[in-house]
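Good morning C.,

I know you're traveling, so I'll keep this short. The sequence:
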Amino acid sequence: MLYRRLVGGGVAFVILLLLVLGIKSCRDSARRDAFKNYVRDVAAIVQGSDSESKNLFAVLQRPGGQGQVQLQNAINGYESDATQLVDRAKGTSHPDEVSTAQRYFVEVLELRRDGIAHIAQQLRTALSGQGGQDAVGRVATQMQLFLASDVLYSQRFLPNLDRPLKKEGLLGQVAVPRTRFLPDLQWVRPITVARSLKGLGAATGPSGPIAPGLHGTALVGVTARPGGQQLSQSGATSITITAKLAFDVNVQNGGTNAERDVVVQLSIVGAGRPIVREQTIPSIAAGTQKVVTIPLAATPPLGRPVTIRVNVKPVPGEKKLDNNRASYPAIFTR
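The tokens, ready to paste straight into the viewer:
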């Protein structure tokens, strides 16, 4: 009887030990998979960021065929893409051991987003004849944000990722991505930026005296896409957040002259960090309307009252401005 008890106890112990080892093995496997998945997600985001760098500097390095409006719209698009990458990075699932690396990774992408955003803001002035030289200097300054992002990635993100990967024995099993957003240090020099923009058509600003007759634009209305909600100034519009959220802004040329390079700005304020986006309408014939689509890209505050401000910036010779802008209350929902 005692022998049977001992044997039974031994069998139970072995079963318990196997269960413990099995559970530990499953946990270890899940843990290693979490590290691998994180590196894979980082690689996908880095690939997107590298593509932005390639496209941005391809536009700046290849003058042929790029007009000022096309250039401005292209940079605005890159800004939207960079904002989406920041949002993706913030939502990336990661093991606790790489939390420090994850924080640096988000900061890298934020630097790149901010650099593109500031370049987009300064570009219109840099391409004009008034204040263009100062704006070119500010564009070159923003190139330093790209340089800072590259240093932060190599000197802070990679070491804080490599250490936990090495501890887990995964350093040789995963491909940790490398990245460099600024292709050449010469881009931090204003003279390099000035030469590039000159080749892109940054000549002398206005093409001559203002044409005689009435000049004026007006904001007709704003519609959220893809939901189709017409914004109203009298009450808050409920807008569903989607990956393709954008706003169609209808602008009318009420003057007697065709207008070119009409800038439309949309901002969301009242909760969290303001979101500001711009798009340019290449031309509007006299007496006609045109719709410009402004993608939001950044995720707006959820479930909080905000104000959507839309402003059609005045064209040369325009005097009546009270019909160029409007403010719309709104709430963003899922």
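Safe travels,
E.
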